[in-house]
Amino acid sequence: MLRESVRRFAEDVVGPKVREMDENEMMDPEIIKSLFEQGLMGIETSVDHGGSEMSFTSAIIAIEELARVDPSVSVMCDVHNTLVNTVIRTHGTQEQKEKWLPLLAQTTLGSFCLSEPASGSDAFALQTRAKKDGDHWILNGTKMWITNSYEADIFLIFANVDPSKGYKGITCFLATKDMGIKIAKKEQKLGIRASSTCSLAFDDLRIPAENIIGGEGKGYKIAIEILNEGM
Ligand SMILES: Cc1cc2nc3c(=O)[nH]c(=O)nc-3n(C[C@H](O)[C@H](O)[C@H](O)COP(=O)(O)OP(=O)(O)OC[C@H]3O[C@@H](n4cnc5c(N)ncnc54)[C@H](O)[C@@H]3O)c2cc1C
């Protein structure tokens, strides 16, 4: 049933916009809105948190059917569900889940920010730093090739809180765009052109300490686990 309904949605709603979005290198906001309305942005999120409470296999089927018509729409949905939502579902506290999962399931696009100009495959060599300042953390650094970042309002950012501990200092922070995330550059690509891929700059980005996901120094474990399953 899911396969049939996503196939119909992809063909009827996404299909007519594929060429225009590709030529304009821009995701149509109506497509993002429709994905939320169809329950495709909280596929594994519990009903209690505003999601569709389906399985990982369901997420794969939905992403496959979207990709059949437009890989840009599919990668947007994939990153949002299998990276962003899954990090919060599996590593968030009860309060974090109650605060962020309903937004991510119903209205707000998410982005997963790990890669940097000098750390792609070697992700744990990342240079973004976080310093404690009272009940906040201050982030400085740059991320690169971040999917969904042009349209997103919720960002999971991996930064090192203690470089002397190497990768064991890497910590996952949740930030919102209005905290001061800047898009430094939107990449022009040869494929999946409607899916945004941007460089981001963090210039004394202040994040409340309560927005650490999974605990200080647990970011490397979260990233490995999530990337093994998602995307
Ligand atoms: C369209 C797009 C969307 C992306 N979206 C995101 C996103 O949402 N969030 C995010 O954090 N990142 C994102 N990325 C970044 C992506 O994760 C990196 O591109 C990827 O990790 C590879 O890093 P790199 O491009 O620096 O390549 P490199 O690490 O420089 O690798 C280049 C080549 O060298 C090979 N190589 C590297 N190291 C070794 C080694 N030790 N031994 C042998 N071979 C090696 C690699 O296999 C590859 O073939 C995105 C990238 C693209 C292109």
What's the layout of helices and strands?
Blueprint: H1 2-14, H2 18-24, H3 29-37, H4 56-69, H5 71-91, H6 94-106, E1 110-113, E2 129-133, E3 136-147, E4 154-160, E5 170-176, E6 182-186, E7 197-208, E8 212-213, H7 219-229
Parallel strand pairs: 1-4
Antiparallel strand pairs: 2-3, 3-7, 4-5, 5-8, 6-7
Helix pairs in contact: 1-4, 4-5, 5-6, 5-7
This protein binds flavin-adenine dinucleotide.
Flavin-adenine dinucleotide (FAD) binds at residues 79, 112-115, 120-121, 145-147, 197.
Please tag this protein with its features.
231 residues, alpha+beta, Butyryl-Coa Dehydrogenase, subunit A, domain 1, Butyryl-CoA Dehydrogenase, subunit A, domain 2, 23% strand, binds flavin-adenine dinucleotide
Protein architecture, described:
The protein has 231 residues and is α+β, with helices and mostly antiparallel strands. It folds into two domains: 2-106, Butyryl-Coa Dehydrogenase, subunit A, domain 1 (Orthogonal Bundle), CATH 1.10.540.10; 110-229, Butyryl-CoA Dehydrogenase, subunit A, domain 2 (Beta Barrel). It has helices at residues 2-14, 18-24, 29-37, 56-69, 71-91, 94-106, 219-229; strands at residues 110-113, 129-133, 136-147, 154-160, 170-176, 182-186, 197-208, 212-213. The radius of gyration is 17 Å and the shape is globular. The model has no long low-confidence stretch (mean pLDDT 97). Bound molecules: flavin-adenine dinucleotide (FAD). The site of flavin-adenine dinucleotide (FAD) has 11 residues, from strand 1 and strand 3.
